[in-house]
Amino acid sequence: MSFVPDNRSGNWSVETFEVPKNDPTQIFSIMKSGRGVPPGTYKRLMRGGTVVMSNTPDELFDFHKVQHLAHGSVLINGLGLGCLVRVLLNKSEVTQITVIEKSEDVIALVKPYLVDSRLTIIQADAFSFQPPKGARYDFVWHDIWDYICSDNLKQMAILHRKYARRSGWQDSWARAICKQQDQRWKKQERAYQSFSGMYQ
Fold it and tell me: Organism's domain of life (predicted)?
């Protein structure tokens, strides 16, 4: 899924990149998530030197649940490469998609390749955007983070509260993994405090 051509706008760019065979250093270092990538040719959205999104298998699989369950009116926070939008536009069950994207440059790079009367892309910050009065969405998906990190959970909680009464279903990119990281860190912190207390 590489329908957006290589291009640059401001500090943002869409780039084609290659993951060669038998090169574990590249396979595990190029991804924002730190997950493995099979050899192949892919696209990535860059902000300066930071990989914000790619169309590698693991990242596309993150949309699996939304892809199969989405219907009706959908709101997406974060445009990225437009991969999820493109998939949802192929579903007749999806009647409307609203995308909130903060970067004018990302919109300039991606929007021209997502032409559909059901799609509205709004340049706004996900946290300050105010949905129209009475608006309700069947599905809401939040995907505005560069990396999988438990620190993202606070922002996820803010967005989930914001749309709690406006959505039939919502989730955030890699939220379950972030929760697992948070639990692991808390467990390690408790173990450290218990251990260090023995030497005080």
Answer: Bacteria
Evaluate if pTM is beyond 0.85: yes
The span from the CA of 117 to the CA of 38, in Å, is: 35
Tell me the per-residue pLDDT of 167-184, one tens digit each, with 9 for 90 and over.
999 999 999 999 998 787
Same domain, 50 and 102: no
Residues 81 and 47 in one domain: no
Q: Are 150 and 182 in contact (CB under 8 A)?
A: yes
Residue 172 and residue 98 in one domain: yes
Q: Report residue 106 as tokens.
A: 């990302």
Residues 92 and 159 in one domain: yes
In this predicted structure, the answer to whether residue 195 has a pLDDT above a threshold of 70 is no
Please report where in the chains the tokens 């396979």 appear, as a residue.
Answer: 27
**Cα–Cα dist 163/169, whole Å:** 9
Give the pLDDT confidence score for residue 19 in this predicted structure. 85
Q: Give the number of domains in the chain.
A: 2
Q: How far is residue 80 CA from its own chain's centroid?
A: 7
Tell me how long the chain is. 200
Cβ atoms < 10 Å from Cβ of 104: 12
Closest to 143 (Cα-Cα) out of 162, 122, 116, 170? 170
87: pLDDT strictly greater than 70: yes
